[in-house]
Design brief:
Strand content: 15-25%
Structural class: alpha/beta
Distance between the termini: 80 Å
Length: 480
Amino acid sequence: MMTEQTKVHDLLGIGIGPFDLGLAALAQPLPDVDAVFLDQRDGFSWHAGMLIEGTTLQVPFLADLVTMADPTSPYSFLAWLKATERLYPFYIRESFYPLRAEYDQYCRWVAEQLPTLRWGRRVTSVVRVADPSGEGGYLFEVTAETAHGVEKYCAKHLVLGTGTQPRLPAFLEGLAGSDGAAGSAGPVVHTSDYLPRRDDLRAAGSVTVVGSGQSAAEVYRDLLEDCGTGPGEHRVDWVTRSPRFFPMEYTKLTLEMTSPEYTDHYVSLPIEQRDVLGREQRNLYKGISGDLIDDIYDTLYRKSALGAEVPTTLLSDTEVVAARFDPAGTDTAGADGAGEYVLTLRHAQLGTTAEHRTRAIVAATGYAASVPEFLAPGLVNLDARGRYAVSRDYTVDDDGRIHVVNGEEHTHGVTAPDLGFGPWRNSVILANVTGREPYPVERRIAFQQFGLPDGGVPATEPDTRATDPRPTDNEMEAAR
């Protein structure tokens, strides 16, 4: 009798985040796809450290695991609402944006229904092996460690969904997890661990949030509510190197950049140009929701009413260039015990530096993708910078059998981390696996065009926009 460890799966996914979970849900009803998905965790969890009460997704509920590929799927967000008797309350609420905690519960509900998910499997190696059918060719052999021993799986196609990992800047790496090196100050944590350490952060007496974007804003707003100068209260500061506390751009023509057409355009650009665009376009998906920015201002206004002191500082265009722990400290926060972190700040416009003291730090410094060490050498194609060299169809090997999800931001742009675009990408992957389109792949959805008609003709002069002294259209308009 063939066991799971000897059978050949059509598709094997490694890592079960929202994107691979959505792929598993879309693959489940397909008769010609035998799939299995492995994850080292004990069960599904989505950003557990940031499920702050009241926070919402920045995308509508339609950007669930499956709807944009199959609106009739039994694994949709609306199906979960109906199954949990919350459909009418959600309807009466009249907001397209689910709570973060709701989205996490929804994903857990889907995960519980899928028999193809294997938890507690830590993948240790992926290699190519000869196809035992005698037809020639090869398969992928995946080795995974479990609490009960080692398991091996074979598959024709792989999907690498290991996602991204919390990223700490170099100046904080040596301080993270040290709790002041001597236990006399509060913690240094990444936002991914915020909620489990929130009480410790508050008890420290002063907290500094370092970073930008929605996560930084949510943590700052959460700490701001109890910010004060009385006994047991704390101060909270926010330092960001962004020129301003910018909102996510959410206008409709801009949203068309999360489209197949723009992704086609982005993939066609040289690697150097894509890397520049990746930095410039962060406000398209890493900005702060406008409602949250307004709520922060209103909270500051409310707390400062009638001249009340609010112990907080907001510093934009300011970069942390160094950090150290001072065991003596100055006890500026008024908390018991000594020991403080000393951050060296540099203001970009002024070019000046200053020291900032704090007893705890929250790093809202994002996440980074990496190539897993368990992949055999030469199994995937890499670019000159050691990143996945991802093709337009999300494959990273010459035969088009290894796919990547949420590891292609540097090649595909803003659609890579976008929850709403995940089902489209999964539709492409399943079409590649099956040789048909079980879920129709829409190739044109935008009104605008992202290149010149018919590709244009090569320019005879270099692009001088970065150094051209002539005013731009916006500058000319502003001068009128």
